Amino acid sequence: MSYNLDSLRVSNLVLENSWNLNLLYEVFGNNLNFDYLINDKISSNNENCWVWYPKSRKHKLTSMVYAHFNKDASTLNPWDGWANIWRLKIGPRPKHFLWLLLHNGIKTYDYLYRLNLGPQTFCKFCNLDVETSEHLFNTCTKVQLIWNSVSSALGKQVNFQGGFSSGNWLSPALSEYTKYDQSVFAVVAWLIWKARCILVFQNEITDMLAIPIRAINHVREFSQTSSSHHGKQLILNNFTFTDNPFLFVSSAGSIENGVFGAGFYLTDTNSQLICAGSCSNCADSVLEADALALSSALGSLFASDLQTCTIFIANAELYYIIKDGAS
């Protein structure tokens, strides 16, 4: 190569208002689309402008490219709801689900049928109509009962102009709903989809009327708590009503003096507290302290004639000991 790359300028790559293809080939080899460059013309009369602005070292090239191609997104896509998805006061999973739904990416029976991956199948909830996204999240008779409960809880009529899957309810320019309302709608749709999948793949029926309560609890958590506490109640949203009551057990203390405090609480699927308690224990290790905390919690439930179906403990070692012992 006869050119010094250290002193190479863009002007060296231009020849009479066109690309210098020979030089480009010497520099880049076959890594360029020369069929495109042959027909590309360069205007030397226009002013220079930045395409990718200089960034700090913390910015990766991929983020710079993404920012460049999205800086004029409003002129390419007039709908202003996309950015609003990520501003909702909800968890990451419902946001991603909503993004897929509004991109027609939810694998309903109708979606699979249009891809020739399955037969045209009726809705599993009502068995009255073909399962499309609009039917599943809006017009299904069983789902309408959910939206009626949401209307009562929010104190306003819920009516999706243009359909739920159109996303008009999420658009700041078109929607009459607040950010809180939109957040509740998004989580309700996510929980409807989860209930549908549980019914299809596990043949279990979810308490549909509990969905509005769970959705509101979800949104309240992300709206009212600090970011460090986000997700503390979301674990309840990942189980069905058949998994409750839920028992949460934990301990804390000092190994040096061997004194630990233990606490527990029992809750149902709707995040309603059933009972709670605490005590102090003497232990020689964290493992022993957590085991005593669990034993105390189960003893309290037995004394109160209560039962639990799902137990949450933070000690992985204790979990595997119990699991191996049970097997």
Annotation keywords:
327 residues; four-stranded mixed β-sheet; two-stranded antiparallel ribbon; Nucleotidyltransferase, domain 5; alpha+beta
Question: What share of the residues does DSSP label as strand, in percent?
Answer: 5-15%
- H-E string: EEHHHHHHHHHHHEEEHEH
Strand order of the largest sheet: 5-4-3-6
The major sheet is characterized as: 4 strands, mixed
Number of domains: 3
Shape estimate: extended
Structural class: alpha+beta
Report the uncertain regions.
Answer: none
What is the radius of gyration? 29 Å
What's the helical proportion of residues? 40-55%
Count of helical regions: 13
If you average the pLDDT, what whole number results?
83
Extended strand count: 6
Distance between the termini: 70 Å
